[in-house]
From TrEMBL:
It comes from Oceanicola granulosus (strain ATCC BAA-861 / DSM 15982 / KCTC 12143 / HTCC2516). GO terms for biological process: regulation of DNA-templated transcription. Keywords: DNA-binding, Transcription, Transcription regulation. Gene3D superfamilies: Transcription factor LuxR-like, autoinducer-binding domain, Winged helix-like DNA-binding domain superfamily/Winged helix DNA-binding domain. The keyword DNA-binding applies. This is Transcriptional regulator, LuxR family protein. InterPro entries: Sig_transdc_resp-reg_C-effctor (IPR016032), TF_LuxR_autoind-bd_dom (IPR005143), TF_LuxR_autoind-bd_dom_sf (IPR036693), Tscrpt_reg_LuxR_C (IPR000792), WH-like_DNA-bd_sf (IPR036388). The lineage of its organism: Bacteria, Pseudomonadati, Pseudomonadota, Alphaproteobacteria, Rhodobacterales. Residues 135-200 form the HTH luxR-type domain. One of its GO terms (molecular function) is DNA binding. Pfam families: Autoind_bind, GerE.
Length: 202
């Protein structure tokens, strides 16, 4: 995906704030970008509104995009009304989920104070989130041997120890780690091990 996506200005499209959670695993996202008003974040957190938030409930039950005003779910705590009092008057929820074994989800919340998001903005923000979701997709071409070497690096072992434990040469271990770094686009073996852990590969 390229073209107009490269010039997407999320702050201009969602001037009241935005929140991105990319590649959410069992509990936490691989990457999080929170540009919502700090006062709202503090209020939302202090009141424990997440489980009652109809936008969040929609996100975890659906894929696609929906304006907050179109969400047909109960809002007993009036979360969306509370959001409006913090300037988040019009909102958009976008949710993506892939069919990989990890089954990870990415989602975005976007807000304006002045008007509803128009269809072109909905499409652009959906494409933007899709691109970010795909960019953070874990590689699927790491071999079992490369993952094993990364797991041992994660455990603090050095090349010599890894080679001894696996019964292979140090050169073989170095080659496995080199391949893993290339596939993960990592600068060091430690960074590659961290990335593999974040992706849930090891």
């Amino acid at each position: 995906m390229n073209g107009p996506l490269l010039s997407v200005d999320v702050a201009a499209l969602a001037p009241a704030g935005s929140y991105l959670a990319l590649r959410v695993g069992f509990a936490f996202p691989l990457e999080e970008v929170n540009r919502l008003p700090p006062e709202w974040v503090d209020h939302y957190t202090a009141k424990g509104l997440m489980l009652a938030d109809p936008a969040m409930r929609w996100i975890y039950a659906n894929t696609g995009a929906i304006r907050w005003s179109e969400i047909a779910l109960d809002d007993p705590l009036q979360v969306l009304a509370q959001a409006r009092s913090f300037g988040l008057r019009y909102g958009l929820a976008v949710s993506l989920h892939d069919d990989t074994p990890l089954g990870q989800r990415s989602f975005g919340l976007f807000a304006r104070a002045d008007r509803e998001f128009d269809d072109s903005e909905v499409a652009l923000l959906t494409l933007y989130l899709t691109r970010r979701h795909e960019e953070r997709m874990p590689p699927s071409n790491l071999t079992a041997a490369e993952l094993e070497a990364l797991r041992m690096v994660k455990d603090g072992q050095r090349v010599k120890q890894i080679a001894h434990e696996l019964g292979v040469s140090e050169g073989a271990v170095k080659q496995r780690l080199k391949n893993a770094k290339r596939k993960l686009n990592a600068a060091t073996s430690a960074q590659a091990a961290t990335m593999a852990t974040e992706f849930g590969l090891i």
